[in-house]
What we know:
Keywords: Cell membrane, Glycoprotein, Membrane, Receptor, Transmembrane, Transmembrane helix. The chain is of the alpha/beta class.
Amino acid sequence: MCNEHLPxxxxxxxxxxVTLQQHTADSAIADERPTHIDLWVSCIGxxxxxxxxxxxxxxxxxxxxxxxxxxxxxxxxxxxxxxxLARLVYQNAxxxxxxxxxxxxxxxVSYNQRNLVLILLHDLLQLERHLLPQLAVKNVExxxxxxxxxxxxxxxxxxxxxxxxxxxFRLLWSVRLHNVMLALERRHPTTRxxxxxxxxxxxxxxxxxxxRLLAHCNAPSPxxxxxxxxxxxxxxxxxxxxxxxxxxxxxxxxxxxxTATTAPFTPKLAGIEGNLVELLAAHLNFRVAIVxxxxxxxxxxxxxxxxxxxxxxxxxxxxxxxTVGGYFPYPALLAATTQTHHYYTAELVLAVPEELAxxxxxxxxxxxxxxxxxxxxxxxxxxxxxxxxxxxHHRxxxxxxxxxxxxxxxxxxxxxxxxxxxxxxxxLWIVHAALLRESYKGSxxxxxxxxxxxxxxxxxxxxxxGGYRFAMTExxxxxxxxxxxxxxxxxAPHQVQLIKSADRQALLERTIRSRDxxxxxxxxxxxxxxxxxxxxxxxxxxxxxTLLTFHFAMYFKRSSPIAAACDWYIRRVVATGxxxxxxxxxxDLRFERPTLAGSxxxxxxQLHHLHGSYLLLxxxxxxxxxxxxxxxxxxxxxxxxRRPNYPGPYPYLHELRRQYPAVGRRKRAQRxxxxxxxx
Length: 679
């Protein structure tokens, strides 16, 4: 009988033992939970208080609910938040108050881009599946600080969480969330909270995003993990760029001709940007690999539909880590990239093949006087001419003789006025005419003996009037000439020739040989470098008018961890005078002067200086001869028409002479003529 009930007794004892152990465990958990909450509140509170100034006392705190463990972890999360907020308010009393935003990060409207985002979650899969896409979209500036609290739960063990940490950090690196710390509770051998972050670069690790233990919460609170890479451990950085002297030049290895290709290669760099990249590589410990755009677009552009080409296209699609150069800032570029401090400022100008100015003979004669002086002389001559015509009408010739003094002829004595006032006016007029003549002759000799001046290209308007066409890239055309915000005059379609950046050097060589009237948009530094190839050849001149001023900088993909380190070094390199030293050593400003410019010494006046004046003098003499001949012929024709048809001379002319012997010759001739006309 006892043997039959023995199994039931054993089963009953086992049930009692299990019930007793479960009750003991529940009691232990109930006693342990306050200790765990105190540990979490103390750890997170110390981090927040120690770094409050970094994120300006602004916190965004929220939890991720849902899942099978929501009911179990709900009380723990609520208790943790209540005690954490109370601790922050109490310990910060009398200081700058905290601002708490309890809405989820992706739903916030106005917030500080550098605030602290504190997220409570019980499973890393929640972050990967639900929250991470919203974080990447909302974090426009991507400069905030994130603190992930992986709260303990029965469903999520420490071992399970550690398996997902590395994958979570890789996802955070892919969306460029860098300032992230993960608080993870470990219970063996003792209960503690570890603060983890990730390093994209390290010994034998280039972009691997492996976890790294920052500190334990029982140690002094560490600062928030603000990404600033000081050592890239020899990792290779790919740079999208192309050769453009004198800013960046490649010293190619043997067997490479510099053909544009997306395959990276490692040349020796020269120029201001090349020297700067080499300097940064030495300080940050990275290797350089150059990737040249192969689509014919060197700089590239980001279009409104989100596509990009050239170097920017390689940057945005992840082929390269950064690009260097002088880009024109526009909203799409600023929104998609992070820029460093500019290290060089350049001006965009127009460059044309140098040539001498062509002056007509009339321009040479008019050049000594300014238009205002010529206007005064013309008015004086016009007044003198009108006075001369009036004098001829009244048969008086004195004003006509006064006008002769302008061209320096002698003045007959009988025309000198007898009144003192008139004599003084005549003297002033003679002095004025003499000064005009001598000033004109002196200025004319000076202008004729100086070297031929260069063509006028001081402004865009002068180039347009000179019949030049303008060669530029599509980006420069839309940035400079196709915007209403600029003060430059718009160009007609037939005046613009759009070219690719890759074809610019060959077109410069061809234009300098053919001497086409083509103006290129370029920087003065590039023109100086081009002119230095051969000083004896005809070179390019640059216009005085600046079309656009732009800065050279390094461009990274948005919120790259390398951007801050490069920016820090660039600011200090520029402050040491590196750019000024490079400009002085590598740019020979002698090649900015044209080869056709004279030495400035006066020349001996020769026949070729005056051939235009001689031609005008010959034309004037021919015109005067023709007018005189026509006047003579006209006078003889009129005389023949007026002559009477007498058979012979007047038969009584000798009698008239005898009749008036005492009359003067002039009056007697007049009377004889009048009598002859009467007959």
